[in-house]
């Protein structure tokens, strides 16, 4: 799997008839076995990312473009911003909200994404970053789970969009 480059610009963006930018997003989650969680034996893990300025945690989201279906856009945003792939489930809802950066209203669609694959190491392009990620992963897992990044690391990674 090769990490794809984030799309740039707004020339392919979708808008409502009244001029609101259409945005799609997801709440990436998975269940992990956890013997401490009686009686179900599982814990829910939700992945969040840092905003571009690093001041708040948020879910992966971004513009829905004219050359893709809504599901393709959700998959793209999950991969670009969080480095995960998964199964998109039934829509959670639609919201009209004001964007913080440009103070314009947007119309957003949010979906749950049941994470099946974490591709964080592939998203880290710098060799020293991959090595640091590997070291932290080994430290946090006691040397186990050598082939799958842990969720704690996923929560600390920032968006691909923060790169210039």
UniProtKB/TrEMBL annotation:
InterPro entries recorded: DDP-like_NUDIX, NUDIX_hydrolase-like_dom_sf, NUDIX_hydrolase_CS, NUDIX_hydrolase_dom
GO molecular function: metal ion binding; pyrophosphatase activity
Domain Nudix hydrolase: 19-153
Record has ATP-binding as a keyword: no
Required cofactor names: Mg(2+)
Cellular component per GO, a single term: cytoplasm
Keywords, sorted A to Z: Hydrolase, Magnesium, Metal-binding
Similarity annotation: Belongs to the Nudix hydrolase family.
PANTHER family to which the protein is assigned, alphabetical: DIPHOSPHOINOSITOL POLYPHOSPHATE PHOSPHOHYDROLASE, OS02G0734300 PROTEIN
Name of the featured protein: Nudix hydrolase domain-containing protein
Organism: Spirodela intermedia (Intermediate duckweed)
